[in-house]
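Regression test case RT-17, inverse folding.

Input:
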């Protein structure tokens, strides 16, 4: 009797008990999958994301072509193109450094990446387009001859220069025009700068000088240019002078060129380019 009581008092195995009682208990659920790790936030909640990297550019000009580009009393770049460059850089949000260089170094310096943009009254000719990616036009200025007042006649035909010695700045569209159009008619004398040619003209060592009309107009108003006046009609030969003046870039630098083009479209549309130009010349140059 005692043995029977002990057996009844012993606990049943849990599985057997569940089976005996008809239990509906489900097996334990599998553990939840771990959530993917959240990448660390780069900024704190509510904090602005870091600004995009600022475009930087070195803009080169000549500094010897007033009123377009020159040096002020402190030796800093100044003039129409410098003012325009500063305005374009501001609108395009480009951090610009404006430097000067000799004319013959400007294009090589762009191609070997010492400079990023040219604003030096560089006409957009077919030959230059083979090496340079230009912006839209920002200036269109005709060429002009100047001669001593004793010979100057505003309506004189260029044929009157036959046999004369004409000065011009070397490596410019004007020297190309003279060589192509007057090669057999005049004696061409090329100089490193237009200023050098004007000095020779004032000294009586040249019969005429060809250059950009605005720069020559400015010189004629000075004491040094009192000797001379315009000769003949404006030169508007598109084969030599091209489609006007544009900003020069390396051909593969489309991002910088597009940024300048957008800013240039703005200053043309809202009249800013015209207002800047009027500070330097009394007639339109766009």
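Golden output:
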């Amino acid at each position: 009797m005692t043995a029977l009581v002990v057996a009844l008092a012993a606990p049943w195995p849990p599985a057997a008990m569940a089976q005996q009682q008809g239990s509906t208990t489900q097996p334990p659920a599998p553990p939840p999958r771990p959530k993917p790790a959240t990448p660390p936030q780069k900024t704190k909640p509510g904090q602005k994301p870091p600004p995009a990297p600022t475009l930087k550019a070195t803009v080169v000009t000549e500094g010897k072509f007033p009123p377009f580009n020159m040096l002020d009393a402190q030796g800093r770049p100044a003039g129409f193109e410098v003012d325009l460059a500063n305005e374009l850089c501001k609108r395009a949000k480009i951090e610009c450094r404006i430097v000067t260089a000799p004319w013959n170094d400007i294009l090589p310096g762009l191609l070997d990446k010492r400079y990023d943009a040219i604003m030096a009254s560089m006409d957009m000719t077919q030959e230059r387009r083979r090496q340079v990616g230009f912006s839209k036009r920002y200036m269109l200025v005709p060429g002009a001859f100047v001669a001593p007042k004793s010979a100057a006649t505003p309506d004189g035909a260029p044929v009157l220069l036959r046999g004369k010695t004409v000065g011009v700045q070397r490596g410019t569209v004007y020297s190309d025009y003279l060589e192509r159009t007057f090669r057999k008619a005049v004696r061409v004398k090329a100089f490193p700068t237009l200023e050098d040619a004007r000095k020779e003209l004032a000294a009586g060592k040249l019969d005429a000088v060809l250059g950009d009309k605005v720069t020559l107009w400015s010189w004629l108003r000075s004491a040094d240019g009192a000797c001379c006046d315009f000769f003949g009609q404006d030169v508007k030969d598109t084969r030599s002078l091209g489609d006007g003046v544009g900003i020069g870039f390396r051909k593969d630098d489309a991002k910088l060129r597009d940024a300048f083009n957008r800013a240039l479209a703005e200053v043309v549309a809202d009249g800013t380019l015209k207002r800047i130009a009027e500070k330097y010349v009394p007639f339109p140059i766009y």
